Amino acid sequence: MRSTIREVSAAAGVSVTTVSRVLNNEPYVKPATRRRVEEAIARLDFRPSVAARALAGQRSFQIALLYDNPSPYYIYSIQTGARAHCIERGFRVVFQECDVTSADLARDIAGLLAETHLDGVILSPPVSDSAEVIAALQRSNLPFVRIAPGGSLDISPRVFIDDEAAAERITDHLVGLGHRRIGFIIGHPDHVASNQRLTGFRRALARHGIAEEAELIQQGLFDFTSGHAAGRRMLTMARRPSAIFASNDDMGAGVLTAAHELGLAVPGDIAIAGFDDTDLARLVWPPLTTIRQPTRELAHAAAKMLIDATDTGGQQLDFELVIRGSTVAQQRLKS
Amino acid sequence: MRSTIREVSAAAGVSVTTVSRVLNNEPYVKPATRRRVEEAIARLDFRPSVAARALAGQRSFQIALLYDNPSPYYIYSIQTGARAHCIERGFRVVFQECDVTSADLARDIAGLLAETHLDGVILSPPVSDSAEVIAALQRSNLPFVRIAPGGSLDISPRVFIDDEAAAERITDHLVGLGHRRIGFIIGHPDHVASNQRLTGFRRALARHGIAEEAELIQQGLFDFTSGHAAGRRMLTMARRPSAIFASNDDMGAGVLTAAHELGLAVPGDIAIAGFDDTDLARLVWPPLTTIRQPTRELAHAAAKMLIDATDTGGQQLDFELVIRGSTVAQQRLKS
DNA sequence: CTGTTAGCGCCTTCAT
DNA sequence: ATGAAGGCGCTAACAG
């Protein structure tokens, strides 16, 4: 059976209060006493019950990660990043998928908050921009950090990259290679990043004096299937583009497959480039040019900001982390 | 703020015990009373605290899903399957990645069990065959269900497909198409299924009187990279095989990519077949022949078996679910 | 059928 | 610097 704080206190010859103090790293415990307690904890392999701590205290040492994404690779990346930091800090993460288009979304989130005593929540796109979720969180007064939110930037700490600049840079690269007719596959309409990436693409085209062609800009859904379909459409056009820019890696893999199916050499007949949100591109299209979005690191940073906040009462939330390309910069909000 | 059972009892004009009875669907509550309580619950949007229930009762309405797998698609499949059933039953799932090769594995699991009050655990491969994890679970006397375990079949309920027969069937198919030199990529050595699939392949070859060639059987790791490497090795051999059997879909995608890179037509120059553990193949290699392993359904069935057990005190654990191809059969253990 | 009385394991005032 | 007492929200025997 699991051992309890009472057994530890007996073993160490102190009161449970003292053990609790040691557990929570509180001051005013004589070093010698602290050592004895720590020894007893180790000897009994004691682990405080999350349920009991949540019930008694105002902290639960649990945070939740919300997501609603079509890409298993993406989900795995954010889960891994968030968990990595939580383990370091002795926190537990609740991975919670949700449906941003559901009518019950607000109720679902409220239920999660009521059932589970959480210390904070991380929102990943497109949940980062869900008005219902944000409202429920604010109502419950729970701290939250958003990954790559598109709007209301000042209502919460956030972690993001500059999608527009990144898309612009990739487009510059393609143009630099001599491409003038470049296809673009837009991401899922629910994701704000989709539009930001499109904007960056367009801005680069304009800067290079290249006219847009409507049929070269196709809607996708951030998943393999939609990328494959859009790729096929463009690659079978009478005058097909010489390059295709996919807004994420799943769609890029789809385009690559379409090219292969049509017997086109990559990058001989058709160049493919785009965002690598989840390191999938490193596997599927290693020779191609991508902007690597450090998804795992974004989630890691989000967890850190959140947990720092619960430790210090919210002070550190005044920071935001900007990850641009491979450069990580940290800057203070104007606040 | 979250409302409590006490507020519900006040609103309904009954004692908290009665509310608790309604919550837990216990008998001996007058229908009229039950209705009044349910109304109050709905009106106050009351959700019982998981922490409080876990502390007070012997049930927590929480189970854990353990995994240690290189494939994000696989992880997502089992998470989705398990969660789907848990939501139906009002349970919460804790997704817990672990490292079966870690020296701290036993401690990690013991920690999970001590911190979280769980009603049961689902093990997915290769955790299903981890002696440490199984020992920790048995020590804690917690019910657990294993997905596709390789050994000690009677120590727990299990959910599985017949990997050997499936591999045999696929091989038969390839031979039926006229292939005599078939490459085989073995799965991760930690997974029992890897060996079972190899055995099925070999048995089919033997039955058809085809001699094995050592260089046509290559070790893989169930991930894209290893499949890609093994595929390249075989496709660049002086006398390359006419077909390749990949032990899972990630490796199959790797082989497919290798074939494309080498300018080989699929399935013209090289046939590719194998297991589709995660529906990845449906996307990446739709025209190819695969055995679909219903991973999501396996996890769903595992969750059902586990929760049924907690409801009925373990009786239903005498059942096992066999999913073979698209046929689902349920049969009683000899027990 | 319903209510009363104790805790579950821990944190949190308050004393000392 | 340490301990005693009370309670978090709920379930579990007991009475009625």
From TrEMBL, chains A, B:
Among its keywords, does the record have S-adenosyl-L-methionine?
no
- InterPro entries of this UniProt entry? HTH_LacI (IPR000843), LacI/GalR-like_sensor (IPR046335), Lambda_DNA-bd_dom_sf (IPR010982), Peripla_BP_I (IPR028082)
Protein's UniProt keywords contain DNA-binding: yes
What GO molecular function terms would the record report? Answer: DNA-binding transcription factor activity; transcription cis-regulatory region binding
**Which terms are listed as keywords in the entry?**
DNA-binding, Transcription, Transcription regulation
Tell me the domain of life.
Bacteria
Tell me which PANTHER family the record gives: LACI-RELATED TRANSCRIPTIONAL REPRESSOR (PTHR30146), LACTOSE OPERON REPRESSOR (PTHR30146:SF153)
State what protein this is by name: LacI family transcriptional regulator
| Source species of the chain | Polymorphobacter multimanifer
